[in-house]
Amino acid sequence: MKKRYVLKEAIKQWPESDRPREKLVKNGASALSDSELVAILIGSGSGSKNALDLAREILVKFDGLSGLEIASVEEIRKTRGIGEVKAITIKAGLEMGRRFAASSGQGASPPIRVSEDAAKLFMPLMKNMRKETFRVALLNSKNRITKTVTISEGGLASAVVEPREVFNPAIRESASGVILLHNHPSGDPDPSDDDINLTRRLTAAGKLINIKILDHIIIGDGRYYSFADNEEL
Asked: Does residue 82 fall inside a structural domain?
């Protein structure tokens, strides 16, 4: 006998006091949990999951709102039930919050003071990637991340990176500095000769245009390698 699939109860069938939208109207946005706020942005569920189920899933997947903020639309939409429109809506909502916090002097992104600060943000997102992916995090004068850009997605062993692709976003966004990040799908974060040569080339290019590379972090399985910590910048 084939198994019967039971759909989870839709949010609109819940008591009004439990529905995220109705709770917001009655008690204010501050009364809602992170997952309830994201569920409102998502709007509707998909398949056997309602909007709140999806919200909880992506918050776990991206390690909370901070991880979700630095994830790309493409990464978010890879979650089953989250299409492009929902992913864009989530990113827009988070960006509004970030801009408001920045304008009130309370930047949403914590300042990056040491390599561990950056690693904590990006390891949950990048440690399990099957392809080698190269990103650049743009920082303002207070060392807060303002934007993260994916520069290249390569095969299992390499990612093609050109200096102009790294620094063009930094120039457009008037970044004070950048942090380079990429993962090693093998799980071993120790740098290869290519990694070392690329870092030297990008560091030299950054000096020419007065954009400082604060670090290059290679993310492995549960550990990372920092060029700054090893005095290789």
From this structure: yes
